[in-house]
Design a protein that fits this description.
By secondary structure, this protein is α/β, with parallel strands linked by helices. The protein is built from 21 helices and 16 strands. The chain has helices spanning 15-26, 33-41, 45-52, 54-65, 84-93, 103-113, 124-139, 152-159, 208-213, 215-220, 238-250, 265-277, 291-297, 335-352, 354-368, 372-392, 407-416, 423-440, 447-457, 468-475, 505-515, and strands at 4-8, 30-32, 73-75, 94-100, 144-147, 168-176, 185-192, 203-207, 225-229, 259-263, 284-288, 302-307, 310-317, 322-326, 488-493, 496-500. The strands form 4 sheets. A 7-stranded mixed beta sheet has the order 6-7-14-11-10-8-9. A 5-stranded parallel beta sheet has the order 2-3-1-4-5. A two-stranded antiparallel sheet has the order 12-13. A hairpin with a 2-residue loop joins strand 15 (488-493) and strand 16 (496-500). The termini are far apart. It binds nicotinamide-adenine-dinucleotide.
Length: 517
C-alpha cells in the first residue's frame, strides 16, 4: 500500500500548515523533509549547505527521505524535487498533491512571515516566477492539483479523502519546439506505469515485437488502425517508409489524425519521418519503449531513415506533439539492448551533467538489472539535458551539435558493419575514440581512463573488429561535414565538449586503432 500523501508547491503555498492539519485528521505522522534532515544530522539545511556544500545536503536529504514512515503526510523542502531519485521515492510513498497558487498571492503571504529566503532575493515576485518555471515539470506531474488560495482547513478536509494514484507520472513538461510548420510546444511525460491517452482516430506504427510482448500496452492506445513493423536498423529504410506511407493512404488516414510511434529508436525515427511526410505533415506522438529511445532518440524531433552508405541520411526535423516514456516498458528489453541506452546516457553525462556521471558510476550497473529507481533517474537526467539543448537550438545550428558526441565514428562503424553493430555499442566505441583524440589534445587528466572504467563496468566492449579503411570511407557520408571538412566533437572534461575541424589523419588513425582489435 502506498497511502501516504506528499505535498509539493512553492514557498508560501501552505505545505506545512495544511500537512499538519491533514496528518491530524488522518491520524498519521507529519514529516517536513527539511526538519527531518535537521533531526537526523543535528544541523540545519542552511548550515550543511554552507559548511559541506549542496551535494552533501542533497545526499543527507536522500537518506532522510528513505526513512519516512509509510502513510505519513510529507511536506517537501525547496529543491528536493529537482532530484529524480527523490521524486521516485516520494511519488511511491503515495499521492502527490500540488498546492497551486498565483505568485502574487504567495509574495504577500511570505512578506508577512518574516523568514529570510535567499533564493527569492532581491525581487521575490520574479524569484517565485523563476522557481515556478523551473519546477513546473515536477509540480505538473503531481497526481492532484489543488487551488491553494483557500483556507487550509478546507483543503485539508478535501485531501483527507484522496485515493491512491493509479499511475506514477514523475516529470511532465511543456517544452517549446519553435517549429514553423509543426508544433510550437510538446508535452513530455516520464514516469512508471503511465496511463497512456487513448486516441481512436490515430494511426499506430508499432514494433512487431511489442505486439507479442506487450499486447495490453498496444491495445491501450485505442488506435483506429495499426501497422506492425520489424524494428532494427535494417528496417529503418526507405522501403519500410514507403510501405507505411502506402498503408496510411490506403486506410484513408486524415491530415488531422495523429501518427503514434510505439517502439524503440528505429521505429520512432521511421514513424516520425512518416508523420513529417504524410499529407505534408501530421501530428506525431512518440511512445518510446527502449531505454535508448526514452533517454534520447524520441525526444529531440530529428526523424529519419538510413541509406546503405550513410546513416540517418534521409530525414527531417519533425517534433512530436507529445512524448510518453514509461520506464516500466523497458522491463521486457534484454540486458544487452538496455545497455545501448546507457551509451547515450554516458554521452549526456559527458556533455554536461556531472551528477549523471556519478550516478552512472555508482548505480549504472544496477540500473541495467533491477534498480529501476536508478534507471528512471538516469533516463530523466539524460532526457532533461537533451530537452534543454534542443530547446535552445532546435535545428542544430550550434550547441545542439554536441549531442552528436561519439556519433561520428559511431555512425561510421554502424555503416561499416552493414548495420549489424547496434547503435548504442557503436556510440560507446565512438566515445572512446574521440576521448583518445581529446586526451592527446590536453583533455582533463584521466578522463579517457575514467570513461574506459565506466564503459567496462557497464559491460561495453572497448574494442571491436572492423575494417578501418571502410570506416574511413563511411566517414565521408557523415552529415556534419562542412565544405569538405569533417567536424569533430571532443570531450575535454565532464561538461566541456569542443567542436574542431582540424583532426589530422594521424589522429584519426590513432583513434581507430584505439578501438580496433
Ligand atoms: N532521432 C534521434 O535523435 C536519435 C537519437 C539517438 C538514436 N537514434 C536512433 O535510435 C536507433 C536505436 O534505437 P533502439 O536501440 O531503441 O533500437 P530499436 O528500435 O531497434 O530497438 C532495439 C530492440 O529492442 C526491441 N524492443 C523495443 N522495445 C522493446 C521492449 N519494450 N521490450 C523488448 N524489446 C523491445 C526492438 O524490437 C529491437 O529489437 C538508431 O537507429 C539510432 O540512430 C535516433
Amino acid at each position: 500500500m502506498a497511502d501516504g500523501i506528499v505535498l509539493v508547491g512553492l514557498p508560501g503555498s501552505g505545505k506545512s500548515v495544511i500537512g499538519r492539519l491533514l496528518a491530524e485528521r488522518l491520524g498519521r505522522p507529519f514529516v517536513d523533509t527539511d526538519e527531518l534532515v535537521q533531526r537526523r544530522t543535528g544541523r540545519s539545511p542552511a548550515a550543511i549547505i554552507d559548511e559541506d556544500g549542496e551535494p552533501a545536503f542533497r545526499a543527507a536529504e536522500r537518506l532522510a527521505i528513505g526513512t519516512i514512515e509509510p502513510g505519513a503526510v510529507v511536506a517537501t523542502g525547496g529543491g528536493t524535487l529537482n532530484e529524480p531519485l527523490n521524486r521516485w521515492d516520494l511519488w511511491r510513498h503515495g499521492a502527490a498533491v500540488w498546492l497551486d497558487a498565483p505568485a502574487e498571492l504567495l509574495v504577500s503571504r511570505l512578506a508577512n512571515d518574516g523568514a529570510r529566503r535567499p533564493l527569492l532575493e532581491p525581487d521575490p515576485l520574479a524569484g517565485l516566477r523563476r522557481l515556478a518555471a523551473e519546477r513546473a515539470p515536477f509540480y505538473r506531474a503531481a497526481d492532484r492539483v489543488v487551488d491553494a488560495d483557500r483556507p487550509p482547513t478546507v483543503i485539508a478536509d478535501e485531501l483527507a479523502g484522496l485515493a491512491e494514484p493509479r499511475e506514477r507520472r514523475l516529470f511532465d513538461a511543456q517544452v517549446e519546439r519553435h517549429h514553423p510548420l509543426g508544433p510550437t510546444h510538446a508535452r513530455v511525460v516520464l514516469g512508471v506505469e503511465l496511463e497512456l491517452p487513448s486516441d481512436d482516430r490515430s494511426s499506430l506504427i508499432v514494433d512487431a515485437r511489442l505486439t507479442r510482448l506487450q499486447p495490453r500496452l498496444v491495445a491501450s492506445l485505442g488506435a483506429a488502425r495499426c501497422i506492425a513493423i520489424a524494428a532494427g536498423e535494417r528496417a529503418k529504410r526507405m522501403r519500410t517508409l514507403e510501405r507505411v506511407l502506402e498503408w496510411l493512404a490506403a486506410s484513408r488516414a486524415q491530415r488531422d489524425e495523429a501518427i503514434v510511434g510505439l517502439g524503440g529508436g528505429t521505429v520512432n525515427d521511421l514513424a516520425g519521418l512518416a508523420a513529417a511526410l504524410y499529407a505534408r505533415g501530421v501530428p506525431y506522438v512518440a511512445v518510446p519503449t527502449t531505454w535508448l529511445a526514452q533517454a534520447d532518440a524520441a525526444l529531440g524531433g530529428k526523424v529519419g531513415v538510413d541509406l546503405v552508405g550513410a546513416k540517418n541520411a534521409v530525414g527531417a526535423f519533425w517534433p512530436a506533439t507529445a512524448v510518453f516514456a514509461d520506464v516500466a516498458t523497458v522491463r521486457t528489453q534484454s540486458l544487452r539492448r538496455r545497455r545501448d541506452g546507457l551509451a547515450e546516457a554516458v554521452k549526456a553525462a559527458l556533455i554536461g551533467d556531472s551528477e549523471l556521471w556519478r550516478l552512472l558510476e555508482e548505480r549504472g550497473r544496477a540500473a541495467l538489472r533491477r534498480d529501476e529507481a536508478a534507471r528512471y533517474a538516469i533516463t530523466e537526467r539524460a532526457a532533461r539535458l537533451k530537452l534543454a539543448i534542443v530547446a535552445s537550438d532546435p535545428f542544430e545550428q550550434g550547441e545542439r551539435r554536441q549531442l552528436n558526441l561519439g556519433h561520428t565514428i559511431g555512425h561510421a562503424l554502424e555503416v561499416e558493419s552493414r548495420y549489424q553493430l547496434p547503435h548504442g555499442a557503436a556510440v560507446a566505441l565512438g566515445l572512446r575514440a574521440v576521448a583518445g583524440i581529446a586526451s592527446e589534445r590536453g583533455a582533463e587528466p584521466q578522463l579517457a581512463e575514467r570513461l574506459d572504467a565506466l564503459l567496462v563496468d557497464l559491460g561495453f566492449d572497448l574494442r571491436h573488429a572492423f575494417d578501418p579503411a571502410a570506416a574511413r570511407e563511411a566517414l565521408l557520408g557523415d552529415k556534419k561535414r562542412l565544405r569538405g571538412r569533417q567536424r569533430w566533437l571532443l570531450p575535454m572534461g565532464i561538461g566541456q565538449v569542443v567542436e574542431v575541424d582540424d583532426v589530422t589523419d594521424a589522429e584519426l588513425n590513432g583513434a581507430l586503432e584505439r578501438i580496433g582489435t
